Amino acid sequence: MGHIKMSLINQMLQDLAQRQAPATDTLGHVTPVQLPPRRKHIPMWVWVAAIGIIGTNALAWLWWQSSSIQPPPTLSARVQPLPKSVMQAAVMPAATPAVNPGSVSTPAPAAIALPAPIQALTTPALTLTLAISKPTSIPAPVKPVNPAEPTQNIPSAPTTISKQVKPLTTVQLAENEYRKALALAQQGRVNEGMEGFAQALMLDPHHHAARLTLVGLLIENKRMGEAERRLQEGLTLDGDQTDLAMILARLQVERGNITDGIATLERSLPYASDQSDYQAFLAALLQRAGRPRQAVEHYIIALGKMPQSGVWWMGLGISLKADNQPDKAREAFARAKATNTLNPDLLVFVNQQLN
Questions:
Q1: Cα-flanking dihedrals φ and ψ of residue 135, to 5°?
Q2: How much is the pTM?
């Protein structure tokens, strides 16, 4: 019973762990070209000389036009010949009229007749200055184009999520229940934990960890009959669960039914051929049941996998002695003593068999 009441909860925990900036606008800093500051007063002779030069150039241009083929209409429309009086005034220097001593009259100097032509000549220059000074127009910032709304019908979010999330299977639900029950058992809420393990087995009867943990809690709470029933159910579903078979056999032997215990172990024996502890347990039951020769066979299998077990060598010696093989029995007892693994009581017994 001491082996049965091991801490199965910690064992199940180990099992669970094993599964378990926009670009800078270069035009933004461009400022309009300012008009040059007003010049100081220019002497009249400068204006007269300038007009004379312009007039001379104008006469030369007119002569060239008259000697060439008909000028383009655009130039003839835009350029008008200067009046003869203006050209003469531009070429000839301003003459001072004779002054009569008797009467002083204000002559009409040629410079007085020049304001209108001067204005006509300087206007294009001013216009050109303004045109050059006019700041380059900054293109309007391009507005971001909103992407066109898709015309395809998109299902609503809840519908999409419901299609993506698959419902949990019964196996997954059982695993969730098992984890919840294990947490409850760890918190000391054993009854709730056992209910959770039972619920997990209802969802998935093959959930081995849930069944094994539930059986352990039932045994700790002295509910042996229910524990045996749960073990029988598990072995009926999965006969290869050798750990369930060993626990059930122990319970059956403890209530005095060695025959049922042997039968339980023999049913799952094909799945335990390489399990030394299973073989040794069956050998011990066979020895107690008065079947030493069969016990010897299973002890030899167990010792072949774990030769350092002094208890099993002692069991083999007992079975050989019961089968009337004293020499081999004595050799088995000597091997048991040589392992130095026997407790004092068993060592006393072995020494008695050797003497």
A1: -65, 145
A2: 0.55
Q: 258 CB contacts (<8 Å, ≥6 apart)?
A: 252, 285, 288, 289
Instruction: Give the pLDDT band of residue 42 (cuts 50, 70, 90).
Output: low
Burial class (CB in 10 A: 0-12, 13-18, 19+), 53: exposed
CA 215 to CA 227: how far, in whole Å?
5
Residues 6+ apart with CB under 8 A from 93: 48
pLDDT tier at 25, thresholds 50, 70, 90: very low
Output the CA–CA distances (angstroms, integers) from residue 40 to 36, 37, 43, 114, 285, in the order listed. 12, 9, 10, 20, 133
The pLDDT tens digits of the residues spanning 211-231 come to 999 999 999 999 999 999 999
Q: Sign of the CA dihedral 285, 291, 292, 296?
A: negative
Give 165's pLDDT tier (boundaries 50, 70, 90).
Answer: confident
Rounded average pLDDT over 31-47: 46
Cα separation, 229 vs 295, in Å, equals 28
94 SS3 class: coil
The pair of structure tokens assigned to 16 is: 């669970």
Cα 97–chain centre separation: 103
What is the Rg, in whole angstroms, of the alpha carbon atoms belonging to the chain? 61
- Single-letter amino acid, residue 5: K
